[in-house]
């Protein structure tokens, strides 16, 4: 068995605002997996003012998907690096379309690896809107807050690293609706495939994050 095959690939799925980022933080903390989130990678490119960042910015702001020729190599290269180093990978926001799934599976097969389990976070649309429209994120360390339900100790400042908190550019109502449509139309079919393979675990995400995490953590320890 190759080194890559021994390290797990786990994925989190759920509509925008279902808590993927928050759960990812906890999984990374407990299991030491590497968190690979193309949304975070792209936001970092934008922050650094790279060509890729400039090309992706308006697409992201509108809540549309960045093209596969950008996303696929960017993410699979990182997956490969981590697995080859023997580290497990947590995918958050990838794959998002059937062509991305097929590209990734082909890549994983080529290095003797495969996805072991995917978590499907389920939550009603009304709850999502209020979560997203109040969300604050830390541009430096990625910590996530909410104006009402999880405010930072000092308003506007990250508890973890002291950086100024920001609202994501795409956390506006129009963009949120567009992202939900993209999820329903393009990402949902991926879950149907994982379900058929018996790899999808349903998680009720409209509960407090600690309870949601208890379910995920229990399954990952199995
Ligand atoms: P997220 O942080 O996962 O909500 O992603 C924010 C935005 O980044 C998305 O609305 C897309 O514009 C872009 N993005 C993230 N992941 C992908 C992906 N797998 N494929 C295409 N675009 C993506």
Distance between the termini: 21 Å
- Sheet with the most strands, sense and barrel status: 5 strands, parallel
The assigned structural class equals alpha/beta
The oligomeric status of these chains comes to single chain
Share of helix among residues?
A: 40-55%
Summarize the structure.
The protein is α/β, with parallel strands linked by helices and 222 residues long. It has helices spanning 3-6, 20-31, 38-48, 51-61, 68-84, 98-110, 125-133, 173-196, 209-221; strands at 9-13, 34-36, 89-92, 115-122, 135-137, 144-146, 200-204.
Explain this structure:
The protein has one domain: P-loop containing nucleotide triphosphate hydrolases (Rossmann fold), CATH 3.40.50.300. It is of the alpha/beta class. The protein is globular, with a radius of gyration of 17 Å. Helices cover 51% and strands 14% of the residues. The chain is built from 9 helices and 7 strands. Strands 2-3-1-4-7 form a 5-stranded parallel sheet, with helices on both faces. It has a two-stranded antiparallel sheet with strand order 5-6. β5 and β6 form a beta hairpin. The structure holds adenosine monophosphate (AMP).
């Amino acid at each position: 068995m190759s080194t890559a095959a021994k390290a797990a690939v786990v994925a989190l799925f759920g509509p925008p605002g279902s808590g993927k980022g928050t759960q990812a933080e906890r999984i990374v903390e407990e299991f030491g997996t590497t968190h690979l989130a193309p949304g975070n990678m792209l936001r970092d490119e934008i922050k650094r003012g790279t060509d890729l960042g400039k090309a992706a910015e308006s697409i992201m702001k509108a809540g549309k998907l960045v093209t596969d020729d950008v996303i696929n190599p960017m993410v699979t290269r990182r997956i490969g690096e981590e697995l080859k180093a023997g580290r497990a990978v947590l995918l958050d926001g990838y794959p998002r379309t059937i062509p991305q799934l097929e590209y990734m599976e082909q890549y994983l097969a080529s290095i003797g690896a495969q996805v072991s389990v995917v978590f499907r976070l389920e939550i009603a649309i009304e709850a999502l809107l209020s979560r997203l429209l109040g969300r604050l994120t830390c541009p430096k360390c990625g910590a996530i807050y909410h104006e009402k339900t999880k405010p930072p100790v000092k308003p506007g400042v990250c508890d973890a690293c002291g950086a100024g908190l920001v609202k994501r550019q795409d956390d506006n109502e129009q963009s949120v609706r567009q992202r939900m449509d993209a999820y329903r139309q393009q990402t949902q079919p991926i879950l149907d495939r994982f379900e058929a393979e018996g790899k999808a675990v349903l998680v009720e995400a409209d509960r407090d994050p600690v309870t949601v995490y208890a379910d995920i953590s229990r399954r990952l320890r199995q």
